[in-house]
TrEMBL record:
<feature type="domain" description="Response regulatory">
    <location>
        <begin position="14"/>
        <end position="128"/>
    </location>
</feature>
<dbReference type="InterPro" id="IPR011006">
    <property type="entry name" value="CheY-like_superfamily"/>
</dbReference>
<keyword id="KW-0804">Transcription</keyword>
<keyword id="KW-0902">Two-component regulatory system</keyword>
<keyword id="KW-0010">Activator</keyword>
<protein>
    <recommendedName>
        <fullName>Photosynthetic apparatus regulatory protein RegA</fullName>
    </recommendedName>
</protein>
<dbReference type="GO" id="GO:0000160">
    <property type="term" value="P:phosphorelay signal transduction system"/>
</dbReference>
<dbReference type="InterPro" id="IPR001789">
    <property type="entry name" value="Sig_transdc_resp-reg_receiver"/>
</dbReference>
<feature type="modified residue" description="4-aspartylphosphate">
    <location>
        <position position="63"/>
    </location>
</feature>
<comment type="function">
    <text>Member of the two-component regulatory system RegB/RegA. Involved in transactivating anaerobic expression of the photosynthetic apparatus. It is a transcriptional regulator that is responsible for activating expression of the puf, puh, and puc operons in response to a decrease in oxygen tension.</text>
</comment>
<dbReference type="InterPro" id="IPR047772">
    <property type="entry name" value="ActR_PrrA_rreg"/>
</dbReference>
<dbReference type="InterPro" id="IPR050595">
    <property type="entry name" value="Bact_response_regulator"/>
</dbReference>
<dbReference type="Pfam" id="PF00072">
    <property type="entry name" value="Response_reg"/>
</dbReference>
<keyword id="KW-0805">Transcription regulation</keyword>
<dbReference type="GO" id="GO:0003677">
    <property type="term" value="F:DNA binding"/>
</dbReference>
<keyword id="KW-0238">DNA-binding</keyword>
<keyword id="KW-0597">Phosphoprotein</keyword>
């Protein structure tokens, strides 16, 4: 029964998943194997570049921010090695600027974490002219707001006063938001 649900991956089902979050990497790899992909995993930019050089995959899921650099370097190298590759960039810091940079570097699509295997598969297999279907359970507006505040906070080196100034909000209001857990 699970065989009928496998998508048509074409003659080359090779998939590189590059992420430094070990548990996420393993879960996604297992889920993508069940969908028929021939999965290869990497945990660093250096490892990803080496795998692209030796055997460029037909599909790739690449995390944007890794401990040893930027995943866009691997996207560019893969695009040069294999122009027909379908590449999805994943990141925990969803922002329009990074999405534009990912597409300019050669990514086919861009997804914010947490993305499940269904979202990733849809993005990898969507035709270029078609928009992929919307996610089954997108982030709530409260979660998107919280993610944006966290991103600006990190970019300001965790300086509350500077973050509040850039977000045009009162410092105490920001402190209350930062003290709370992330919304679902």
């Amino acid at each position: 029964m699970a065989e009928a649900q496998k998508p048509d991956l074409g003659p080359d089902p090779s998939l590189l998943i590059l992420d430094d979050d070990e548990s996420f990497l393993r879960r996604l790899a297992k889920a993508m194997e069940k969908r028929g992909f021939a999965v290869d995993i990497a945990g660093s930019v250096a490892d990803g570049k080496a795998r692209v050089t030796t055997n460029p995959p037909a599909y790739a899921v690449i995390d944007l921010r890794l401990e040893d650099g930027n995943g866009l370097d691997v996207v560019e190298q893969l695009r040069e090695a294999r122009p027909d590759a379908r590449i999805v960039v994943l990141t925990g810091y969803g922002a329009i600027a990074t999405a534009v940079a990912a597409v300019k570097a050669g990514a086919t699509d861009y997804l914010s974490k947490p993305a499940d295997a269904g979202d990733v598969t849809n993005a990898l297999l969507a035709m270029t002219e078609d928009m992929p279907p919307p996610p089954e359970n997108p982030m709530s507006a409260d979660r998107v707001r919280w993610e944006h505040i966290q991103r600006v906070y990190e970019l300001c080196d965790r300086n509350v006063s500077e973050t509040a100034r850039r977000l045009n909000m009162h410092r105490r209001t920001l402190q209350r938001i930062l003290a709370k857990r992330s919304p679902r």
